[in-house]
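I'd like us to work through together how a protein chain folds, taking it slowly. We need material for that, and I hope you will provide a protein of your own picking. Go ahead whenever you are ready, and we will take it from there:
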Amino acid sequence: MDMSDARGARERLVVVGGDAAGMSAASAARRLRGPDELEIVALERGHFTSYSACGIPYWVGGDVTDRDRLIARTPEEHRARDIDLRLRTEVTELDPARGRVRARDLASGTESWTSYDHLVIATGARPVRPELPGMDAPGVHGVQTLDDGQALLDTLAATRGRRAVVVGAGYIGVEMAEAMIKRGYEVTVVNRGREPMATLDPDMGRLVHRAMEGMGITMVNDAEVTGLLTGDDGRVRAVVTEQAEYPADVVVLGIGVRPETTLARAAGLPLGEHGGLLTDRSMRVRGHENVWAGGDCVEVLDLVSGQQRHVPLGTHANKHGQIIGANVGGGYATFPGVVGTAVSKVCDLEIARTGLREKDARRVGLRFESVTVESTSRAGYYPNAAPMTVKMLAELRTGRLLGVQIVGREGAGKRVDIAAVALTAGMTVEQMTALDLGYAPPFSPVWDPVLVAARKATAKVGAAV
């Protein structure tokens, strides 16, 4: 069935994916162009729209008690803005040559084509699920969407045992380990890397490792999962590595995510080395005038390394959507790139990074010096001053800041924003030492820990020249 009905002079925007990037694009375009000029159709295969995927671990852990608090805008609110939002509708094919998409109504199973003048691909990312024995057994959960989070909570409510194994120790892995601890589970994290948080250098990841063990989490590093065992009822009962077997009543996959570009690949759209769609700075898919893409399904420019990266974060997705909506709506906006800033926490330990790790800098041919300093979140004499460790990388000869990693207690994580601004501005570590940051004993020492690291890096780069 072809739904590409006659629309007169009115254009149609079709959005594939109803979360941050897709619905931000739809909303921004609607603000600029009314329904008489632009029809907007949004197709979402799940039950929810415009929600915070980043908040799912905190909902699972009980910090957020109501699922609906994670929803920024309901389907009814979008429809009230003249957006034709169709839930439980899965797009099965993109046809850029003919300007149309095919979608299946998941309730009825019927399929139909919808034509477009502008297409937004916002299909997000999918959790990595290795093709190993038992990986699809009941009790094994990836966590990427609200539907995934609800499925995990349903499993926890129906499970008598209290043993959880988290596979992977990236952002999702450590956050889900904390969520399981808060749920009263005995938690084991099985990680293939030397240390948790591969987004940090191993020496900083070691700090996370020690803190997690101090919280009662069993860390198993340098361990490759070879399969999952199931019981007589078919449910998962253990995670197996080459060295050992770890009993599990529930398994959470925290291995990471990949761009969900299956449809884009089948349609012949350009993909990068990480599997994400390639766009220009206006978020238009390269070589396709009326096709746009944003969010976790695209690759972005790293402003520090000059390379393309896949950085799945809600902050970027919302910006991409705003930019796409502005351009479809007749305005003009661009996305310059990222510096790779991210923060997380496991219990009371805050973890932050921005810019390049040591191996990132080496991979793109940069020579650098690195320094590590230990300081506190407040003046040392002020009550509840918490420790933090700051690692900083600076380029040889130029002194250009290349990256910062921070691990510490309360007040540590958001300090990475200082470095993120400095990276975006292309500052040297010497220039950073003169930054006029706010100071009072309840907030920082006289020399903020980030500036202490900048001073030490300045001296080391100067000595190396």
User: Anything to note?
Assistant: The radius of gyration is 24 Å. DSSP finds twelve helices and 25 strands in the chain. The first strand starts at residue 11 and ends at 16.
